[in-house]
What does this fold into?
Amino acid sequence: MAEALQETAERLALRAKRSSDRGDYPGAIGQLRQAIEIREQELFDLNRDSPALPDERKEAAHRLSDYWGRLGGIYRRAAQESEGIDRAALTSAGVDAYRRGMEIEREFRLDDTYNLTNWVVLQLLEDPVRLPELAGVINDAIAIVQVQVDGPRREQWWAWADLGLLCLLARRPWEARAAYEHFQQVGPRPVDYRSVLAVLDSLHEQFKPCDPELAGGLNDVIEHLRSASSEL
It folds into this structure.
């Protein structure tokens, strides 16, 4: 029974991706929310089942946090193609999805900061003036990611990219540059560079009018990574 439900969740998540890829965001959101309900029940049952192994709970928690992150990404893309009230509502829903995933990352001490980083980024893309308000969260996130890259995530390019971005936002440029150097060393593909640069470019555009100093730091990293990616 449990395996059948897990397969159903995976099928729904795959359908959601396909729907999102063709621009059917309402369909994708509905499908992924159904998948999340299944994953939430899976984790609830494991937490209730005392003989369940901690690793089983952690794996289930990771699947659920991943789905919340995917949902946040769908809301984010939908918001980018919307305006006015719809855009604000979709962005808010995306922030909430990332928050839900972030809470699971923290509760189960997962070696992942996808939701945490995107929770910060999406809020700043919508309102860069919120940076001082988020400064404490950003510095706490840096401490978390630093521990992870010193251990189980040392070979993950996206972990080093998260660390570099968070250090930039915390105005810690030397630490940011060191993180991006590690990012380059662990072998990211051209598509990975494009993914990282897309986020940096978006933040650079948002901060140019209100924080030229931070925008300049973002631009320095953008030029450095763009140059490095052109040599691959």
